Amino acid sequence: MTVPPATGRRERKKAATRQKIADTALRLFLERGYDAVGIREVAAEADVAVTTLFSHFASKEALVFEQDEDFEQRLTQAVTGRAPHAPLIPALRHEIEALVRHCTAAGAAPIWRMIDESPALRKYDESMRLRHAETLAAAIAADPELSLSLSPTASRTIARFVIDAYSLAREEADPEAALDEIFRMIEAAWDAAGPAPRASGTSGR
């Protein structure tokens, strides 16, 4: 269905406002320290009302993880948007690699130092990863093809492994090599969780 032009403009304006708020918050946090900056200061600096800020971000912590929802949606899309019988794990690895590249790009180190030094941000990061794992597990369990071969426990286990791959790899000196090692183990767990391969030599997963 074609989106009406007016709707497109509204969505672009909302996205621009959201990005402006997030960029402003991150700049202030890095300049003055996360705990030293309040929500009202962020809103004033971004030239928006506090209510507008909260319409885009549910909490102060969420301002630091502004791509949270986008990443969660991309993980779900990696499951639901696959071609029929396309393997799942490579599709998930593609999204994890993209996130790791984002989190290890130039300029990311000060942000992670800030997160590591803040108990509130560390707690939010942990809860966010748990939520991503549950969302991913639900998408796997809801897939008609995958649900035939995986138990709910297996779906949750694989999802946790995939999400943990991101946090482990981003801390390594060579994230790509770390992902190679981690995903070999995930593939082995994936193979062990499903039924025996079909006679054609493929599992159809």
From TrEMBL:
The record places domain HTH tetR-type at 15-75
Highest taxon listed in the record's lineage: Bacteria
The record's annotation in Pfam families points to: TetR_N (PF00440)
Q: In which residue ranges does the UniProt entry place its DNA-binding region annotation? A: 38-57
Write down what this protein is called: TetR/AcrR family transcriptional regulator
Q: Which UniProt keywords apply?
A: DNA-binding, Transcription, Transcription regulation
**Which chain positions lie within coiled-coil regions?**
none
Question: Do you know which Gene3D superfamilies this protein is assigned to?
Answer: Tetracycline Repressor, domain 2
Whether DNA-binding counts among this entry's keywords is yes
Please give the Gene Ontology molecular function terms for this protein.
DNA-binding transcription factor activity; transcription cis-regulatory region binding
